[in-house]
Amino acid sequence: MTPFAIAGVQMYVNALQPNVDGMIHRLDILMARFPWTQMVLFSELAAFGPLDQYSLPPQNEALEKFQAAAAKYGVWLIPGSMFITDPEDGRIYNTSVVINPAGEIIRRYAKMFPFRPYESGIAAGTEFCVFDVPEVGRFGLSICYDMWFPETTRQLTSQGVEVLLHPVLTGTTDRDAELAIARATAAQFQCYVIDVNGLGAGGVGKSCVVDPTSMVLHQSAGQEDMFPIEVDLDMVRRQRETGMKGLGQVLKSFRDRSTDFSVYDRSSGTDEYLKTLGPLAIPQQGTTAGLDATTPAMRVPQASSSVGEDSLPGFAHKVPPAFPDEPLPNPSAGTATTVANPVVPTGTPIPIVKPGVLPGATENDTSSG
């Protein structure tokens, strides 16, 4: 067994004033209560809230406080994320850092999929975040909306990531969908998912920890919560070799796939349909986007000529045999002769059929119906 204790902190986030001191205060409480914790994860944008007007330079006082706290307790610390302004191009990135137990920032990760069109002013990162905890295992980091795109987790787990750290800021009605995605991600990619949401301006809570079999190990409610969970990295390795519950070996099946996916080649034309969709924009009142009922087929590009053909080798372009002609109807069908007022011989008793007893059967013979 390779155990490792990871704690999520679900806390109230203020949008108009810094939350840094509150985060460190909660870290103090967490380590006093659960000193065996080895890694701590806060929610997305927990430090300064969801407004990019509070964006900071890459080196700032808040990060220095988090580094000192990590060194004080000797823990790995991922303090959610914050908006960082790139000094070279002036663009703002939703950025998370990984701080090791010595207080050193070893990784920076910029969210790849900002929640557009609502986060239209936030630039998208292009680099993945993978790091090793010595003698424990490999960890990866993605932020909130990133997990809606399985390609991000595919890239991480293909590099050996065994635990997906996932800070979230979701205060909208799609949180339940995210929880379903978290469970599916754990099963699809045979990894732990540590999914931490905030409260107040930081979200609606419902943080969760999911194991590689998609079992929810912990589910927070709508109040503040700190939840250390000891994960077992050997369970990940065992499942990736023998399958989930001895069944699907999905990572090896993907490795041994017999096809590549042309949709990832932007020049292949496979994604022509996507180009017919409208702009990535916030819906307006009374919008009828997507409701063109007059000529719905005009939105769909012409399908390739191979659609509908059997994809097995040797079966393409073969015309299936015609169905045999249906038999002519029987002229007498439905014209059974009926006898009006049938005569019952005098003195012949009409048997009374008891419930559950078939006609002609003895009383001991019952129906199984």
Model description:
This protein is of the alpha/beta class. It contains seven helices and 15 strands. The strands form four sheets. Strands 8-9-10-11-13-14 form a six-stranded mixed sheet, covered by helices on one side. It has a four-stranded mixed sheet with strand order 4-3-1-15. The longest helix has 15 residues, at 175-189. The model is unreliable at 361-369 (pLDDT under 50).
Quick description:
This protein is an alpha/beta fold and 369 residues long.
Helix-strand layout with pairing:
Elements: E1 3-10, E2 12-13, H1 20-33, E3 39-41, H2 61-73, E4 76-78, E5 82-85, E6 92-99, E7 105-110, E8 129-133, E9 137-141, H3 150-158, E10 163-167, H4 175-189, E11 192-196, E12 199-200, E13 208-210, E14 216-219, E15 225-232, H5 233-242, H6 250-255, H7 272-275
Parallel strand pairs: 1-3, 2-12, 3-4, 9-10, 10-11
Antiparallel strand pairs: 1-15, 5-6, 6-7, 8-9, 11-13, 13-14
